[in-house]
Amino acid sequence: MVGHRKMTDAKRVELQHPSGAEQLWCEEPPVLEGAGFLPVTEIRLRTTCTDGAGREWFSENGYLVSAQTTFSTAQTAAVGDGYYGIAPEGPIYSLECRSGKGHDFVLPEDGRLRFTFELLEGSGTPWSEECVRETMREPVENRPATVVLIHNGTPGAVHGANLLRSQGYHVVVQPVLPEDTELDPILKALEGALEESTGEVHLVASGRASEAALELAQRVAGLKSVVIFSGSGLRFSPWRLGGETLPHVVCDHSSLQPRGGSILVTRRIYAEAVADRENRDKGRIEVEKIECPLYLFSGSEDQVWPSSAFSELVAQRRKAHGLEESTEHETFPGVGYDLGVELGLPGLPTTERTLSHNSTGFRVALGGKMGRQSRARRECWEKLLQVLQG
Q: Which residue in 111, 168, 192, 195 has the fewest CB atoms around it within 10 Å?
């Protein structure tokens, strides 16, 4: 039992840590359990933490005490505006910024987040406790496999790589930035990883970086798997490879208007661009040339682009070439863009459903519902580990 403070002898509260006081974000969140409270009364739980930018994030969730005088964040349905449903991760996933909406949750450089849990009764705080969640610790075991992570230059990529390293994998991190469309250096790094690795090599990418990953995967031999989150089998960027610019789908951004004056919903312009078959066919990536198994995960409510439809195009193209057994596409209903080890780190807040768009100064809608997003993030992490472990 973790120390409980300001409680009477009749009341008891436990903060249970599945793997000790300090946990990786990818592990199950702590569970709060209480006993000795008045039946059918509401207990409020407030959770706070400070992110890497110094902003305070919080959630406040209510739990109804059972007739047996107990409650549990893992078994008792939460009530109130913060979070609905039964899930121990609710208080963490439903965090909101005290500075108001429109802020990105900034990960601390050391990968450590300190959460404070406070149990509220009336106007008082009868109990409080802290726990630390971190993205990096000693690997559970050293594995011979290598993961090449191609990412979009987001801060989450660093922590996603650390999560993979914590599982014992050697990770090669390769950014793909919008202003640099040269793929030759990344192809060279991928070939180098294949030559140097003493075990399997897996290629992982999310979002726009998936275009580069699929383009390169068909040009190398020996990959064990390719795993794509919220991706596309179409080129929308003018990638350069071998001194040539590859043909790509042309998008008309001129009609794009921010919703509510500040939020962009970009899904429509991608859907309109591919409605023209000739335009769409210019950007098709020859995914049937990828020799290894290909796994795709997407959300049906992705508002950045229709990644579910784009991923299904990849799956259908491979199946048409007899690669059905080595192709898997899973779509999560009611889930948005932020999936995978770069975009959707498990155990981080999902309340803010927009993300800063640096080139325009606006925010981009991600799509998806908070509860479903949190569960899909964790499931994607677990499925990725299943692929890496064979």
A: 195
Both 310 and 350 in one domain: the answer is yes
Q: Do both 225 and 350 map to the same domain?
A: yes
Please answer whether residues 236 and 308 qualify as being in contact, where contact means their C-beta atoms are separated by less than 8 angstroms: no
Q: Please, which pLDDT band fits residue 2 given cuts at 50, 70 and 90?
A: very low
pLDDT digits (tens, 9 = 90+) for 317-357: 999 999 999 999 999 999 999 999 988 888 778 888 888 87
Per-residue pLDDT at 358 exceeds 90: no
Interatomic CA distance for residues 358 and 10, integer angstroms = 54
pLDDT of 256 > 90? The answer is no
Which amino acid does the sequence have at 63?
Y
Range of the domain at 56: 12-134
The verdict on 243 and 381 lying in the same domain is: yes
d(CA 44, CA 65): 10
Torsion of CA 282, 227, 231, 343, to 10 degrees: -150
